[in-house]
Each structure stands twice: as C-alpha cells, then as structure tokens.
Amino acid sequence: MLARNHPNDKNWTRQEQMAYWINAYNAFTIKLICDNYPIASIKDVKKGVPFVSDTWTIDFIKIENKTYDLNNLEHGILRPKYKDPRIHFAVNCASFSCAPLRNEAYMPEKLEEQLNDATRKFINAANFRNSIISAKKADLSKYFTWYAGDFKDAAPSVIAFINKYATTPLDADAKIDYLDYNWNLNEQKSTSAAK
Predict the structure, then answer these.
(1) What whole-number distance in Å separates Cα of residue 53 and Cα of residue 18?
(2) pTM over 0.85
(3) Are 151 and 165 in contact (CB under 8 A)?
C-alpha cells in the first residue's frame, strides 16, 4: 500500500504526510533487512551491491513512479520538510542504538502524541541508547551530536530540548558524554527452543 500511494502536498495534511514518510522509512528498513537476512548489522547490506557506498544509498524504494533510498526519505524529505527533531526517535535503522520501533504505525490523528511518546521514552530510557544519570551528568545518544542543529532549531540548546521531555531535567552545565553507537542488528532472538 505504501508503494502505491504518494503523499500529495495539496490534498494531504502535514500530519498525514509526516506519518506516511515515517512509516515508509520504517517499513522499507524492515524490508531491506528481511531481503538480506541473515546479517549482523544493517551496514552489512551494502556488501555485494555494486557502486553503493553505504546501505542508506541503495535505490530500492519504489513509490508510485519514483525510486528512493533511505537517505532520500530521512534527509531529503523528513528532516528538511518537517523540521521536527522528534523524527529521530520515530525512524528506526534496525540497530541496537536506534530508537525502538513502535508496535503500531504512526497515525495522522495521533501523530503528536506518538512523537512525544517516542521522544520521551528514548530520552528517559536508562539503557545503552541514552542515559540521564543525574541532573549533573548524562550519557547521551550520538543522535544529540550528529543532529545537534535539528535539536537547536526546536529549542535554545540540546539540553533545553532534552529537558522538555526528561523526567530528570539536566542542569545547563551538566557533564555530557556520548555513547558509542551500536550498529548490531536489533533482532529479537527466539526464547523457545525448537523440539
């Protein structure tokens, strides 16, 4: 269905368009992984694809009569058109350090609630993705350095953006470290043994 319907700027609301492109990114990321499984990391997909420098530049997404790659969706459409840094917590790159994939599609009528929820969960998760240790110290995701400009466009600083969603707000002078990004596939292993 995603491949047959293309958002029309004139007939689709901003929320409809944004939900569509987030869902397209996530669905096509899953398709890319499934089509190339087993792999240890999404970065392994590029191996064996001639003239491709990285996974995100593989032209495999067909929507109506256009072909896209994952970079087109995230950096060519979602980030520049909608200028909403919460997108970083909605799109999933199939890696451990990525924001978790929701168990539901993003829906226009509840997009604000879903984006706020995804952002809040990511920022407040005390895990390998992101961890606010105290008001004085945080180990943050690389998202906050890679896309610092996106967060600063929405708030006076990265810390100010984080504090809009954090249950433990950070002091303006908090010590910030950035966690290594884990590109390993975030697959779920079966817990039941085959008999």
Answers:
(1) 28
(2) yes
(3) no
